[in-house]
Specification:
- It catalyses: Xaa-L-Pro dipeptide + H2O = an L-alpha-amino acid + L-proline.
- With 438 residues, this protein is α+β, with helices and mostly antiparallel strands.
- It has 13 helices and 14 strands.
- The strands form 4 sheets. It has a 6-stranded mixed beta sheet, with helices on one face.
């Protein structure tokens, strides 16, 4: 069997189990459709329902749907309207079409007519803000128990999913190298962003998330996406957090660069070492929370060695000092979504893992299992809003912190496939390595 054939068989088995466990015998997964802006007829960029593209790699056919009944062949209703205003999304002939019953429709009423009484017995998963979808008579709309069951199990990726994520990482790495070169050539943030898109022939709406392209102090703004149109007089540092999509699967990569050797370049190298040291600790059976705390201790050691904060790594962490420099979570699941869901699920019944108030922004608390894919993205920044709580604290070397402020900060992010016995795959570093060999 091909990897996709194995994948869709796995998806079917997971839906069989989820539907049976939650009292449904069928499901209608709606791809979604664009929303128009308030008081306007201009639609925002369309993003497909992730549970739709879980079955088939079709991303740009809104108003389509998949009907699946336990144990039966899935039916894909591919919406291709008769419309002279807009170009049709091209759907090439691919392997997925061999594993489904394909029904091409140009009106949604043709789908409901085909389904007949089956619609009323189906659970509906998707957005239903528009007519006629909002008025469809279904058994349940987005039942949480069904969604939780599916989300818990899709944290374990199939071989086909990992193949797609390898390809997505190679695309993103290609674009990252182009952005890096634009930075060293003196480009503005907007020009760097354009170089990124051009390197992989992508539109902005075809990326999985808004890219962070931050020069100098902008690197301290965690979700910075303003893009200055003029280059600064002196571009000291560059932080880029940007990804790519391949067949609906995401890459999410962050790198930080210093224009010149010296203090900030040394800090980047130290953070890279701290991240790499943590990667060696990833193995099935430990919790992601343990990894997060371990990374805090490693960053605390960097804070001590570079003279930002006085004390041992343990004392810096225990007093909460490291959180002023590393305020976000260590990472998150990744796959069909950049921030793939299910990170707080204790089981497929929907029981939640309690969040730790000390680390409220951590997106993943589950035990590490083989087959999971998640990011590892430690950071160290000068965030004045967080440092205000420590004003006047003599444990902080404020002069040394001022030296870092013009550079913003450092973040380094890789995506890891968890293997058995710590035999992990680094999708991100492998992608960069493959490009270096060409």
């Amino acid at each position: 069997m091909s990897s996709y054939a194995n994948h869709i068989a796995t998806v079917q088995a997971r839906f069989d189990a989820a539907l049976t466990a939650t009292g449904f015998d069928s499901v209608l997964i709606y791809a979604g459709q664009p929303r128009v802006a308030f008081l306007d007829d201009n639609a925002a960029p369309y993003k497909v329902n992730p549970l739709f593209k879980y079955w088939i790699p079709v991303l740009e056919s809104p108003k389509s749907a998949i009907y699946y009944k336990v144990g039966e062949k899935p039916v894909v209703f591919l919406f291709q309207p008769r419309d002279f205003w807009h170009a049709q999304a091209e759907v090439p002939h691919e392997e997925w079409q061999q594993h489904v019953e394909l029904v091409v429709i140009d009106e949604q009423e043709k789908m409901t007519a085909w389904l007949g009484d089956k619609l009323a017995a189906a659970a509906f998963i998707g957005e239903d803000f528009a007519e006629p979808v909002a008025s469809w008579q279904v058994k349940a709309r987005n039942p949480q128990a069904l969604i939780d069951h599916l989300h818990f199990h899709r944290a374990i990726k199939t071989s086909w999913e990992i193949e797609n994520m390898r390809a997505a990482n190679k695309l993103a790495a290609t674009a990252h190298l182009a952005a890096r070169d634009a930075f060293f050539a003196g480009a503005s943030e907007l020009e760097i962003h354009h170089a990124y898109l051009a390197a992989i022939a992508a539109r902005e709406t075809q990326l999985p998330y808004n890219s962070i392209v931050a020069l100098n102090e902008h690197g301290a703004i965690l979700h910075y996406d303003m893009y200055q149109t003029k280059a600064p007089a002196q571009a000291r540092s560059f932080l880029i957090d940007a990804g790519a999509l391949y067949k609906g699967y995401c890459a999410d990569i962050t790198r930080t660069y210093a224009r010149e050797s010296g203090f900030f370049a040394d800090l980047i190298a130290a953070m890279d070492d701290a991240q790499q040291a943590l990667l060696s600790e990833i193995k099935p059976g430990i919790s992601y929370y343990q990894l997060h705390v371990s990374q805090h201790l490693k960053i605390a050691q960097v804070l001590s060695e570079f003279g930002f904060v006085k004390g041992s790594a343990e004392s810096i962490y225990e007093q909460g000092y490291s959180s002023a420099f590393f305020p976000h979570g260590l990472g998150h699941f990744i796959g069909l979504q950049v921030h793939d869901v299910g990170g707080f699920l204790a089981n497929d019944r929907g029981d939640a893992i309690a969040r730790d108030p000390r680390h409220p922004f951590l997106r993943l608390l589950r035990e590490v299992e083989a087959g999971q894919v998640f990011t590892i993205e430690p950071g160290l920044y000068v965030v004045d809003q967080l440092l205000e709580a420590h004003a006047g604290n003599n444990d902080f070397n404020w002069q040394r912190i001022d030296e870092l402020r013009p550079y913003g900060g450092v973040r380094i992010e890789d995506s890891i496939v968890v293997g058995e016995d710590g035999n992990n795959e680094n999708l991100t570093r492998d992608a960069f390595a493959s490009l270096a060999n060409h």
